[in-house]
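Subject: design request, 185 residues
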């Protein structure tokens, strides 16, 4: 129904937005050591602009637009409610990398946050998006040991029931900064 979709998930500060920015060739998503963004952001190509010049966001729309525009395959996500809608958005970008695919950057997974804190069921949203995605990238930071609760639930329960394992790739980020194999392990 739409172009191929890449879903990027992982713990907070695992490098999701940095990876996306690197592939796109510009500062499209905010980055930082602490959680910087609590939104699901659909990043897609803007065919109405020239790909020449610096890569930049050419248009931003809110979740209400994204959930109601038949051009996009997200109408069924309305069931997650208003709170989810306020944490869902669209960015159109002039990056040639996006001509044939779109990317969804997700809020970082956390340990202590609950459904009540977010205002919507995070695992159900991840599951619905994973079901639509052609590829799910799961990022881990090699310098942060362990897996937070939301990531553990996503890996153990949500992804196996909502997508095929051949669509899930695990990315171990910052591996080049490990001095030895012992550091990596």
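Subject: RE: design request

Done. Sequence follows.
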């Amino acid at each position: 129904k739409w172009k191929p979709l890449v879903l990027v998930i992982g713990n907070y500060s695992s490098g999701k937005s940095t990876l996306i920015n690197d592939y796109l060739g510009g500062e499209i998503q905010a980055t930082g050591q602490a959680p910087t963004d609590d939104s699901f952001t659909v990043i897609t190509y803007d065919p109405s602009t020239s790909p020449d010049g610096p890569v930049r966001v050419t248009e931003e729309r809110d979740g209400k637009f994204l959930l109601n525009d038949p051009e996009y395959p997200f109408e069924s996500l309305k069931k997650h409610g208003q709170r989810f809608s306020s944490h869902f958005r669209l960015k159109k970008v002039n990056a040639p990398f996006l001509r044939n695919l779109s990317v969804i950057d997700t809020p970082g997974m956390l340990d202590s946050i609950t459904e009540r804190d977010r205002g919507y069921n995070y695992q159900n949203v991840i599951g619905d998006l994973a079901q639509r995605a052609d590829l799910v990238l799961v990022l881990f930071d090699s310098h942060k040991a362990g897996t937070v609760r939301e990531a553990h639930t996503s890996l153990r329960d949500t992804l196996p029931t909502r997508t095929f394992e051949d669509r899930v790739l695990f990315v171990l980020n910052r591996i080049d900064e490990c001095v030895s194999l012992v550091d990596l392990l």
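Residues 149-162 form the longest helix (14 residues).
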